[in-house]
């Protein structure tokens, strides 16, 4: 039962939205001074997940990544200001009913990383970087023009795969903190690299980051780190209700790697255990978000840690498609896909309210499902359903689990 | 400069004796060709040549001319032996390989002749280590018959221009394709790996290119696994000369400046992938 052990570490699963098939040709030119930032973004995202989506949107080029257990989602949208020029031209596919068509472009991070391998030389030596696609060829071209005249062209084959987007209305979170990324990095660096999860707790008086350990047994063995920050450390400090959330550290570290390179503030949005926590930053060049699933309350409470229920609890907490699907189903009953899209297209409030209203109804699921993913564009729930299965790698055993849970949890 | 004051040996009995104030001047250059365990050594009046070969397709030669040594005595016209290069390098760096601020390791190297070991006396700060390395039956080395009159294309460029390219070679590609041409794209390195292809274009008027003499467009492919070890030489060198002859054979000559500012050369020869070169010709 090796895989089970692995899965018990993960904190939640995800509900995903899906795209239509679309063809978009994209060409953008990144000026030399921004090439390093772009490269750094690719490096950081590579620390979060293995698959990287290039998603050219009207508002800019989005790079998205979801980790393998689907407990973390990160997205960096580079606005057209970031680029020297940014063009996208949509080709409507015949028979496509929707005007908005997305370009499905997924890479293995391993193939994109070599393009931006040496960050120091990027900054010093690169004059500009051009990224363009030719859908007909099925390649994306990355061209680096060096000051010394060398041109490096990488022609990378991509995989057609639907981009994902986490559905999380951070505006509804009662707790919002804004802080210099440097400070967060300084906090995180004190945790040993083997530390998988940390707990962030907020009260109106202080914010603390501490080691999270799953079982009390481990507690005595491991190093326990705890760090407190007073409200004065924050640029903005709003704590509506005390909260304690536990999330994975590795992905956050990856994100901070990118955040550190800029001087923009990081906003942290959190509500309560089991609800996702979001770290985001925004400036005129890009918007960057990472949304992390958090451990559900039942697992964090000490009483439940002692009870035999923990075993079932941690099992349920596995990031397999089961939890996602069951939530997708429950979600579909409450929010129709139209509203999910409206979140994206700016009609956000309605959808957000909906999400909030529905939340209490989902409470039984909170234990094991903490992060929802949604389609980037509208899609029938049926399709979304299928997607969970395709995106998560579940063993046969888990498929059984999935069916079982689906049955037991649908009422 | 510390130097071996008392080698307990009588120089008369050796066919080859040489000494160096700084053993790194030898060890660094041998590292540039250290991709196989065994090397052949040839010594003549001009100096020492160390050769390493791989797969009968690649040959690397390091030349350490007599002038590099503080003392270089040879009693025969030529001295040939084969030696375990890994062991030789381990011995040469027995006091540590890094270029520390301390005193350099002095070296005296002696060879008595066929059937005898190569004897190294290494001294640092008054401590002397004596190493005796078994020599082996010399083997015939490949003759690439690479003659400068047959050279069609030649480019000399600063090593830094190639360093990144070689360090980042996509090793999932079987071969490195080199295009040299009097016309565009002038000089192009390409790999075709699992993730896609990568091309590196050098304009002929780039500051990195010191000489550009291409007479004929040539496209040749070389096994990337064979060329990759040359990265070691590239890393040490300041300039590199890339030449191809009428058969598509590749010669890479690296100019390496040692710690005392003297110039040494390392040379790699590589055969092209046959199919492509045939199709090309």
From TrEMBL, chain A:
Q: Which GO terms describe its cellular component?
A: checkpoint clamp complex
SUPFAM superfamilies documented for this protein: DNA clamp (SSF55979)
Pfam families according to UniProt? Rad9 (PF04139)
Task: Report any one BP term from Gene Ontology.
Answer: DNA repair
Alphabetically sorted, this entry's keywords are: Phosphoprotein
Question: How does this chain assemble?
Answer: Interacts with HUS1, HUS1B, RAD1, RAD9A and RAD17.
Q: Which family does it belong to?
A: Belongs to the rad9 family.
Q: What is this protein called?
A: Cell cycle checkpoint control protein
Q: Which organism is it from?
A: Xenopus tropicalis (Western clawed frog)
Automatic annotation (TrEMBL), chain B:
Would you name any one GO CC term? checkpoint clamp complex
Family annotation (Gene3D superfamilies): 3.70.10.10
Query: For this chain's UniProt record, which GO biological process terms are given?
Result: DNA damage checkpoint signaling; DNA repair
User: Which Pfam family, any one of them, does this sequence belong to?
Assistant: Rad1
Recorded hits in InterPro entries, A to Z, give: Cell_cycle_checkpoint_Rad1, DNA_clamp_sf, Rad1_Rec1_Rad17
Give the location in the cell: Nucleus
**Oligomer and partners:** Component of the toroidal 9-1-1 (RAD9-RAD1-HUS1) complex, composed of RAD9A, RAD1 and HUS1. The 9-1-1 complex associates with LIG1, POLB, FEN1, RAD17, HDAC1, RPA1 and RPA2. The 9-1-1 complex associates with the RAD17-RFC complex. RAD1 interacts with POLB, FEN1, HUS1, HUS1B, RAD9A and RAD9B. Interacts with DNAJC7. Interacts with RHNO1; interaction is direct.
Q: What does this protein do?
A: Component of the 9-1-1 cell-cycle checkpoint response complex that plays a major role in DNA repair. The 9-1-1 complex is recruited to DNA lesion upon damage by the RAD17-replication factor C (RFC) clamp loader complex. Acts then as a sliding clamp platform on DNA for several proteins involved in long-patch base excision repair (LP-BER).
Q: What is this protein called?
A: Cell cycle checkpoint protein RAD1
Annotated gene: rad1
